[in-house]
Every structure is written in structure tokens, then in C-alpha cells.
TrEMBL record:
It is found in: Cytoplasm. CDD domains: PurM. SUPFAM superfamilies: PurM C-terminal domain-like (SSF56042), PurM N-terminal domain-like (SSF55326). Belongs to the AIR synthase family. It catalyses: 2-formamido-N(1)-(5-O-phospho-beta-D-ribosyl)acetamidine + ATP = 5-amino-1-(5-phospho-beta-D-ribosyl)imidazole + ADP + phosphate + H(+). PANTHER family: TRIFUNCTIONAL PURINE BIOSYNTHETIC PROTEIN ADENOSINE-3, TRIFUNCTIONAL PURINE BIOSYNTHETIC PROTEIN ADENOSINE-3-RELATED. Keywords: ATP-binding, Cytoplasm, Ligase, Nucleotide-binding, Purine biosynthesis. This is Phosphoribosylformylglycinamidine cyclo-ligase. It comes from Streptomyces gamaensis. The lineage of its organism: Bacteria, Bacillati, Actinomycetota, Actinomycetes, Kitasatosporales.
Length: 358
């Protein structure tokens, strides 16, 4: 018996992967990637690896390289449903570079990974545009990335993004818990909103429980629900680096998943305790709304959302005025939210006291 074969053989395209669409996406993103560069970047887009001239680090006595990687979680679902793809790139950069700067490291370069169900060149280019713009805001270069098409695993309109970054800090200028002392002040820097954490809770409350739609006009926001939820993560890296050059800083803490208490605790040494006064600030309307509509207990909100604080600096008491002035000069809304005290008979590294203002 003779075998029969199909008139049309199998192909990558038939399996759902469109190489030509991927090539077009690369062409569309080149303009934006070129804008996110630094003098140390060698070569251009299209190589198998991004190149960075490490001889630029010769001026360091003992350079320490810092590395971080992150994504933006289920916020990508809001971008997909809104059909707005560039702001999600700002979020990705913020989540990565603001982890780097916590130890005092200057972000040098980033790479990204975009996974899609189907390559839509304009959409991919819009995501990369946002990443490139975020890198410019962070002072780092976008040296490469990868776009992967996963038909059958993701729906045609589904996607996810992730990124990795590298920074450098002089060893004797490394920041962290080892420098924190009793009497230090805790300076809070305002977030731009939800940033990129807690969206599983927020989506559950606003969509599943309250039944709200993304195009709903919300008076408390002065815009639609979707616009509020897509507000980009604030990128603090250059602000933090400028602050560390201007004033004595002992530690930074990036307030992401886990909230203020859990993240600040990571830079509080044994034997000390951070006492934070809630009355020093008023969380934005979105935090109150999620709590009210979902009947979410305050402690649950605080361990899930940033509650209006995106970055914290721990500075000596004598540096407070200089630090606040430096941040104000850069347009960063900042205030003294608490202090570092002896642990005493307490067991937790960070305690929030009082009620929020307003």
C-alpha cells in the first residue's frame, strides 16, 4: 500500500508563528530603541546579544554590578482590554530599575522579553516604545530583547512582558540595612497610583465584585477607571541617585508587592524598628475606592497595595531638610513619614500607627 501525503506540507506559519510579522515588529521598534541608549552601548539592534563597553567602569575603585528582573503582573490585562500598550513599558522599566537603585546602583542597561499569542507588529512596537521611553527616564539603555510568539498557549490578543536590568555601584557607596541607625528619618516619596502591584485584588474588587467597566467615568479620579488603572509606575531611579549625591542616605526601599511594611522591613537591621505615622499622608482615591467597594480590611490593603508611597529613603536626622529640598527640586512629592527607633519589646521590624490623614 502506498502512502499518501497532503498537498500542503506543515509549516511554521501553519502552526501559528508569523516570522514576517516578527520582522516587521523589529523594524517598527528600531526608532524607539535607538533613543534609549548610552555612550557605552556598542552596536545596534539585531545582534544575538546586546553589548556594553565595560571599560566605562575603569573609574570605579571597586565596582559592584547589580542585577534585577521583574514583570508587571496582571496589569497587562488592563492594557490589553484598553488597547493601550505603550504605558505598560514604563511600568516594566520602573519595576526593574527602581529595584536596582535601592542599593545605590546606577541603572546601565535593560533587556526585555515580550511573549504574545500572535505577533501584531504595531502592538509589539508600542510596547517597546514604552520600554524605550521608560529607559530614557531612568537614564539607562535598552540593549536588546526578545519577542516570542506562543500560539496555542496564549490567545491571539494575550501577551506578557518581563525585563532584566544591570546597574553599578561603588562598593564603598553601597546602601542598605548595614548603614541604618537609630534616629534616622524615614522619608516617603509619593506613588503615581497603583503602580504595578496588587492588580489581581483590584481587578477582583472592581470588576468581579462591583461590576465596574473600564470606560466608567469616576469623579474621584477625574477620568475613567481604565485611565486610572493604566497610570504608569513612577520611575524614581534618577531622583534617588540625585538624592544620594546631595544628601547622606543610608537606605532606599522600593514599595512593591507586600506593601510599605514588608518592603521597608528588608532594610531595617536587627535590633531596630521603623515607626511609620499614617497621619502624615492621604492615600489616593483609588486605594480608598478599592477598600470600600471590596470591604477590604486596612491591613489587607496595606500588605497588597503601596497606599500612595512608591519609594522610601532612610536618612540621618540632620539630612532631612537637605533631602526634602533635593526631592522638591526634582518635582518629587516627599515627606517625613516616620523614624527608626530601638526595637525594644516589639517583634515587628515596621509598624504603621495612627489613621491616614483626610
Amino acid at each position: 500500500m502506498s502512502e499518501t501525503t497532503s498537498a500542503t506540507g506543515a509549516s511554521y506559519a501553519a502552526a501559528g508563528v508569523d516570522i514576517e510579522a516578527g520582522d516587521r515588529a523589529v523594524e517598527l521598534m528600531k526608532t524607539w530603541v535607538r533613543k534609549a541608549t548610552r555612550p557605552e552601548v556598542v552596536g545596534g539592534l539585531g545582534g544575538f546579544a546586546g553589548l556594553f563597553d565595560a571599560s566605562a567602569l575603569k573609574g570605579y575603585e571597586r565596582p559592584l554590578l547589580a542585577s534585577a528582573t521583574d514583570g508587571v503582573g496582571t496589569k497587562v490585562d488592563i492594557a490589553r482590554r484598553m488597547g493601550v500598550y505603550d504605558t505598560i513599558g514604563h511600568d516594566l522599566v520602573g519595576m526593574v530599575v527602581d529595584d536596582l537603585v535601592v542599593c545605590g546602583a546606577e541603572p546601565l542597561f535593560m533587556t526585555d522579553y515580550i511573549c504574545v499569542g500572535r505577533v501584531r507588529p504595531e502592538r509589539v512596537a508600542a510596547i517597546v516604545k514604552g520600554i524605550a521611553e521608560g529607559c530614557v527616564l531612568a537614564g539607562c539603555a535598552l540593549v536588546g530583547g526578545e519577542t516570542a510568539e506562543h500560539p496555542g498557549l496564549l490567545g491571539e490578543d494575550e501577551f506578557d512582558v518581563a525585563g532584566a536590568g544591570t546597574g553599578v555601584v561603588e562598593a564603598d557607596r553601597l546602601l542598605g540595612a548595614e548603614l541604618v541607625r537609630e534616629g534616622d528619618a524615614v522619608i516617603a516619596m509619593a506613588s503615581s497610583g497603583l503602580h504595578s502591584n496588587g492588580y489581581s485584588l483590584v481587578r477582583h474588587v472592581l470588576f468581579d465584585r462591583a461590576g465596574w467597566k473600564l470606560d466608567r467615568e469616576v469623579p474621584e479620579f477625574g477620568r475613567t477607571l481604565g485611565e486610572e488603572m493604566l497610570e504608569p509606575t513612577r520611575i524614581y531611579s534618577l531622583d534617588c541617585l540625585a538624592l544620594a549625591r546631595t544628601a547622606e542616605v543610608h537606605a532606599f526601599s522600593h514599595i512593591t508587592g507586600g506593601g510599605l511594611a514588608a518592603n521597608l522591613a528588608r532594610v531595617i537591621p536587627d535590633g531596630l524598628h521603623a515607626r511609620i505615622d499614617r497621619s502624615t499622608w492621604t492615600p489616593g482615591a483609588v486605594f480608598e475606592l478599592v477598600g470600600r467597594l471590596g470591604q477590604v480590611e486596612r491591613l489587607e490593603l496595606e500588605k497588597t497595595l503601596n497606599m500612595g508611597v512608591g519609594m522610601v529613603a532612610v536618612v540621618p536626622g540632620q539630612s532631612v531638610e537637605v533631602a526634602l529640598a533635593a526631592l522638591a527640586d526634582r518635582g518629587v512629592d516627599a515627606w517625613v513619614a516616620g523614624e527608626i527607633v530601638e526595637l525594644g519589646d516589639r517583634t515587628e521590624a515596621v509598624a504603621l500607627t495612627g489613621a491616614y490623614a483626610g
